[in-house]
Amino acid sequence: MLMGLKILWDHDAPDGIQLPVARTITRILGMPVEISENHVRFSSGYDNARKQYDAQTVLNRLQTFKMRYQIGDPLLLVMNDDLYTSGWDFVFGLARDTTGAAVVSSLRLDSRYYGRDRCDEELVERISKEGAHELGHLKGLSHCTDPECVMFQPRTLDELDRKKTILCISCRRKMTDLAE
Ligand SMILES: [Zn+2]
Ligand SMILES: [Zn+2]
After folding, report:
1. What is the rounded CA–CA span in Å between residue 174 and residue 8?
2. How confident is the model over 70-124, as pLDDT tens digits?
3. In angstroms, what is the span from residue 115 Cα to ligand 2's centroid?
4. CA of 33 to the centre of ligand 2 (A)
5. Is 134 a catalytic residue?
6. CA-to-CA distance for 105 and 78, rounded, in angstroms?
7. Catalytic site residue from 37, 121, 134, 180
8. Ligand 2 centroid distance, CA of 148 (Å)
């Protein structure tokens, strides 16, 4: 059976762009992507002072969900809440390859966060790059030094925008080797 990738789309994440995101991630990673509505609820992990979720707590919850429903495929949650992890003011996303779970926040990828109008094309690109990056980790890829490769770790939105919606040749090769 062909291994697929699963994406859960939270109700607060920007609606109407799920299919283009799934298509773009499929094209970047060369794997089928199944997208569905998120029903996982988070009762802990929200920091009231920071107004952010602890991404590690979110990943713990996703791990429990995967075990309960025996989901073996890599699982990515797209949510709109802001995320942080210890030592960082915020993170665009986080992956835990030992459990095959990852999370991406759309909040800081959305131009509305910076006081501009929503731009679907930009949103699809950014969420796809971030999503493919975290799913790439779940497939065994590590960070890449090529600033245009999806596996490059962006520190800023500009660095994320500089990336292309592709894996560099070296990461693509690694992906093929890992799949064999
Ligand atoms: Zn990374
Ligand atoms: Zn690369």
Report:
1. 26
2. 999 999 999 999 999 999 999 999 999 999 999 999 999 999 999 999 999 999 9
3. 32
4. 21
5. yes
6. 6
7. 134
8. 8
3-state secondary structure at position 9: strand
Q: Binning pLDDT at 50, 70 and 90, where does residue 1 land?
A: very low
DSSP string of 123-166, one letter each residue: HHHHHHHHHHHHHHHHTT----S-TTSTTS--SSHHHHHHS-SS
SS3 assignment, position 86: coil
How far apart are the C-alpha atoms of 127 and 110, rounded to whole Å?
9
The ligand whose atoms approach the alpha carbon of 164 most closely is: 2
Question: Residue 41, Cα to own-chain centre: how many angstroms?
Answer: 18
What is the number of the ligand closest to the CA of 144? Answer: 2
Q: What angle do CA 36, 37, 40 make, to 5 degrees?
A: 115
* N-term to C-term CA, the chain: 13
**Ligand 2: centre distance to CA 69 (Å):** 33
Tell me the CA–centroid distance for residue 95 and ligand 1, in Å: 7
Q: How do residues 28-64 score in pLDDT, each as one tens digit?
A: 999 999 999 999 998 899 999 999 999 999 999 999 9
